[in-house]
Amino acid sequence: MSLETILMTVFSSTLIYAAPLIFTALGGTFSERSGIVNVGLEGMMIVGAFSSTVFTLSFSNALGTATPWLSILVGGFFGFLFSILHAVATVNFRADHIISGTVLNLLAPGLCVFLTRIIYNGKGQTPIIEQGLGTYTFPGLSKIPVLGKILFTRTSLVAYFAILIAIVSWYFLYRTNVGLRLRSVGENPVAADTLGINVYKYRYLGVLISGFLGGMGGAVMAQSITMNFSSNTISGQGFMALAAMIFGKWHPIGAMGAALFFGLAQSLPITGAYIPLLSHVNSVWFQVAPYVITIIVLVIFLGKAVAPAADGTNYIKNK
Amino acid sequence: MSTSVVEMRHITKKFGNFKANDDISLTLHKGEILALLGENGAGKSTLMGMLSGLLKPTEGQILVEGKEVEMESPRDAKKLGIGMVHQHFMLIPAFTVLENIILGEEPLKGGRIDYKKASQEIERLAEKYQLDIDLKAKVADITVGMQQRVEIMKALYRKANIFIFDEPTAALTPQEIDQLMKIFRALADEGKSIIFITHKLKEIKEAADRCIVIRAGRVIDDVMVADVAEEKMAEMMVGRKIRTTVDKAEVDQSKAVLEVKGLNVEKHGLQAVKNLDLTVHTGEIVGVAGVDGNGQSELIDALTGMRKIKSGSVKINGKEYANHPVREITEAGVGYIPEDRQVVGLVLPMTISENLALKNYYRKPFNNHGILEYADINQNGKDLIEKFDIRSQSEKEAVGSLSGGNQQKVIVAREIASKPDLLIAANPTRGVDVGAIEYIHEKINDERNDGRAVLLVSFELDEILKLSDRVVVMHAGEIVGEIDPKNTSAEELGLMMAGKKIADAE
Amino acid sequence: MLKGKNKNALIIPLLAVLSGFIVGAVLMLVFGYNPIQNYVNLFAGAFGDVYSVSETLRNMTPLLLTGLGFAVSSKAGFFNIGGPGQYLMGWFSAVVFALHFHALPGIVLIIGSILCGALCGAIWSGIAGVLRAFFGTSEVISTIMLNYIALYYVNYAIKTWLAPKGSDSSPNIPKKASLCTDFLQNLTHGSTFHWGFFLAILCAFAVWFYFNKTCSGFEVRSVGMNPSASRYAGMNVKKTIIVAMIISGILAGMAGALDGIGNYQNISVSNSTPSVGFDGMAVALLAGENPIGMLFSALLFSALQIGGLSISVLSTTPSEIVNVVMASIIFFVGIKYAFEMLIIKGVIKKGAKAKEAGNQ
């Protein structure tokens, strides 16, 4: 294989694996920027993966090629609904954020497999989706010499979309007044309240956006990688996304960068076999590498990461 | 001065069965500076909480500009032109000054925040009211004085006409206090009205036109400041005469307990303590005066083993203890009342007994080969609760449920009960009520009279001057001078704290 | 006052359990299943006869131990999601020990395997503890990463060293190394119940004793509640963090070891990290991290899991309904504030009524 082809393979599979993580890590960023710790991303992804798969299986005949794309929005919508639980528990009922997030992670697989069995005649997994997101070659851009082939040929369109969302998220959080207020309730809710900012409202906003993005992340996972839903569809990606968010210092662009790095690491066990230098290396090293590298990077470069000051605290308004 | 801008009529506020405010009435006139005087817990903050929309009165009316109002939230108060500057600043350290000021009132341009327009508006106000602030700095990086100016600017930016200040001078240097008083005057001259909550009489004399005294939730008196002496106001506040001196016994002060030589300490790579020499003798209270952030915390942390010493020597009873573990230093006979009782001094969810044993749980008789003897620990708790008059239901009650003053008493009891040779006390009376202050002062002075060495760090000049045998002044990590508290006024001390060496001051 | 608190401490978990079952019932009704019949089946499946009781108790063993492990680290202020990895390392190393030293006498093999499992669990959690203590690395990330490292490493090791060619499982350990003896099998009508159960119960009491009576337990609690104050009091915070993390890993590793030589008798390649590590969190959370309370919460969750199996055997209801019930229970534990408000309001109303009655 030529170097170009190898790079193209590496790059596109990195994007494919990174896309779900980017969406979900961004979701985590919104939630935690508003002060609500979100260890329930995994559960949100599961709900997104399940609902999008059911949607695709039910409507692909009627809606054709647009189905997987619409299903991502469907996954987002159900992730959004699911996250209401987390918002109610943490914002209104002062639940410990970690307990509430754990509940999402416990509830989602049980509920979704339960429903899968009901919908698909007692089977614990759905049939395979016939039409996934597939790969995409950018018209025009792919003609650029060298780079066109590496970056824009047979690649993951949804990953580019995810990167776009990351940039939009940054703009939203750091350039708009809603973003400023959302971050303020995650830093010092008491101060925000004295300025007439509705702490509950903005925390809800953070969690619900988080649910939507987490659901989208799960949907992308199902529509581009596993191609069905079962209890194994989401196996730790939510936690990886959480790690990416912390790795990225609770910043949308940082979270995206970390998610891309994890995507590369996750794709290496598959693409490594095609890379001449790496093909003799035992695959276990590729499998373990991303996790080891993450720990090392954290130890060397980050040390104590800086979370939003009021992350994980409940705001109790006294009247 | 006859037009009233605020009238509070027969305000009562209950929390459960507790009446924090009991039938309080108050009037504020246009262009007036009104002081609200009272002890901690007297109900001042509750009263102002209702005026700023944070709390709702149980009974009574509030009139602003002659019209009865009901405020559901701070937003409503703001609409009425009421701006509150809280004692604990309501700022977001991670945000810039500019972001802090405009938060909640952001000017927009095409969906994004128009920072340029906001800066221009704020700079105009800053010029008008002589408020020096750096809009681009992060709040985490600016001085306490500037943080307060940011708070004032927040209110001005929101077009406030009525300013409420809750203990505005608590963390300021004497110079910053002067500056603040000037800002008060400037605001009043522009027709703004000010209420400030305080328990410091000097400031009332200096800045206020009128003073309302509150005790135990009720108005005790409403006086024109010019007509009343400070001592009289103090009596009204506490309800009895208070002692401003302590009895010092003649004791042997010949032996050095703590000897610090050439001490250097770094914080975040910056030199926080520079080449510092300090000696504390038996039977002596040495006061360290200085503005917050001039190396006092780092000095104490270094002495107690909680921060690494870069160079220099720390001798306790003649033995070197620089960079020794905390526990060894404690065992060498050092007691330490830390500045932040809730974060450093106590484990709030643990019981009073456990907290009283926090420093010697691992020794006999409490520890028996790795097993804790809770019977002894609780008995010890019972004894100390009685001895130090800690108001509590039981020795097994969580320390977190005690009042601030009683929490502080738990720490004082623990540190004094261990009979240390050297007692280090950092702002030992911060945020506790007058009764507890007197008690703690006496206990510290008793230690001195018993021949122990005491190192007292405090931002309260009155406390330093009242207790100390000698006072050293710290500025920018150095000791810039030593004074005799009997012959020095608070003003002279203030100048030194701002960095003037004695020679310059004269 | 104190008594009232204790009462609430018991009422809330009970209310939470009840509410969880109600949620499950509503869900079943919505989809046309019979909740009462299913709950009866569940109960019978978990406690109906000697065999099922034994299965429930056997399944409770790892739940209790991983729960205890989570609780110990949590008391030290540590969110240890590394249970699955530590459990897996314990399981793996216990099986390896039993296979490798097969010539040793049975009792030595058993003790050695358990110790080996505990040790490997401790190493795995200890890494996270050291990283947190000395580098401030978030234990949330490091334990997640360590879970996956354990998963892939163990899979690789099984395939490369343990499993015969073409197989994904290690051989079974020698019979003499098994905790599941003939005596117990006869007694429990051929269930998988094993001696490890008693060890787990012992551990619960040991953890209780550790926190409430020992010097080291006091330090762990103190550091967990307030590290600054603990440092001020002269405790070695770093050491304490590591100690707590190691104890936590010992318990999770032991859970894996007991399952390995008691229940499974071998180890197989797996696609995902073992869920029992996470279920342990639920056990700890329901009991408010009280070791004695966890005896009951572990029993409950184990009964749900074991009894849940017979739900789908005896009806068309998917057995995952029990996972929904479990999650709901923890949800209600989480929002205990809502219950507290209900209780307080209820009490106030009662009080007001009593007053009215008194006035009349």
TrEMBL record, chain A:
InterPro entries per the UniProt record, alphabetical: ABC_transp_permease
Name of the protein described by the UniProt record: ABC transporter membrane protein
Coarse class of the protein's main subcellular location: membrane
GO cellular component, one term: plasma membrane
Membrane topology: Multi-pass membrane protein
Compartments where located: Cell membrane
Pfam families: BPD_transp_2
GO molecular function: transmembrane transporter activity
Originating species: Ligilactobacillus ruminis
Keywords associated with the record: Cell membrane, Membrane, Transmembrane, Transmembrane helix
Residue intervals passing through the bilayer: 6-27, 39-63, 69-91, 103-120, 157-174, 204-223, 259-278, 284-307
Automatic annotation (TrEMBL), chain B:
A molecular function GO annotation: ATP binding
Domain ABC transporter: 6-241, 258-501
Keywords: ATP-binding, Cell membrane, Membrane, Nucleotide-binding, Repeat, Sugar transport, Translocase, Transport
SMART domains: AAA (SM00382)
Signal peptide: none
Membrane-topology descriptor: Peripheral membrane protein
The organism's place on the tree of life at top rank: Bacteria
Localisation: Cell membrane
PROSITE patterns listed in its UniProt record: ABC_TRANSPORTER_1, ABC_TRANSPORTER_2
Pfam families attached to this UniProt entry: ABC_tran (PF00005)
One annotated Gene Ontology cellular component of this protein: plasma membrane
InterPro entries in UniProt: AAA+_ATPase, ABC_carbohydrate_import_ATPase, ABC_transporter-like_ATP-bd, ABC_transporter-like_CS, P-loop_NTPase
CDD domains: ABC_Carb_Monos_I, ABC_Carb_Monos_II
Protein name (record): Simple sugar transport system ATP-binding protein
Originating species: Ligilactobacillus ruminis DSM 20403 = NBRC 102161
From TrEMBL, chain C:
GO CC terms in record: plasma membrane
InterPro entries xref list: ABC_transp_permease
Main location: membrane
Residue stretches in coiled coil: none
Domain of life, per lineage: Bacteria
Annotated membrane topology: Multi-pass membrane protein
Transmembrane annotation, as ranges: 12-33, 60-78, 107-128, 140-158, 193-211, 241-261, 294-315, 321-339
Alphabetic keyword roster: Cell membrane, Membrane, Transmembrane, Transmembrane helix
Location of this chain's protein in the cell: Cell membrane
This protein's name: ABC transporter membrane protein
Species per Swiss-Prot/TrEMBL record: Ligilactobacillus ruminis
